[in-house]
Amino acid sequence: MYGLLIENIIQYIQDNFGVDKWNEIRRLAQIEETSFHTHTVYPDVYTKNIIDKACKILRITEKQLLLGIGESFVTFIGRYGYDVVLSALGMCSIVVFLCTKNQMKINVMNFNEIFIYKHVNVLMY
């Protein structure tokens, strides 16, 4: 699970239930990290444990929690500029964005490699 998604879960819990509740959930879920890197992939068990413990501590159903997290995600990614990326790419939904995120990253990396290669060759000759 990308750190971006875990950060969204954390932000949702803190905004709606408080930092103390998040710290309690983190402790019971046995998550030692206090922050997550946006583009780092973390074990899926982190998310499962966070969701399981959050439902128990917050006394809400998994469906309620996931719905709240999903609704907050659109606003959350706007902070990182992904709303602009979605618009620029003509993507109509967040689902399409998430399904193609890895491919977009590969395309950008390939573009950067080609761009740098061409510019280095021009400068050398």
* Residue fraction in strands: under 5%
The biggest sheet, with number of strands, parallel, antiparallel or mixed sense and barrel status, is: none
The span between the termini is 45 Å
> Secondary-structure element sequence?
HHHHHH
Q: State the domain count.
A: 2
CATH topology of the largest domain: H-NOX domain
Total count of strands: 0
Approximately how much helix is present in the residues? Answer: over 70%
The CATH architecture classification of the largest domain is Alpha-Beta Complex
Shape category:
globular
Which structural class do the helices and strands define? mainly alpha
Report low-confidence residues grouped into runs of 5 or more.
117-125
Count of helix runs: 6
Mean pLDDT: 78
Query: Radius of gyration over alpha carbons?
Result: 18 Å
Q: CATH top level of the largest domain?
A: Alpha Beta
CATH homologous superfamily (4th level) name of the largest domain: H-NOX domain
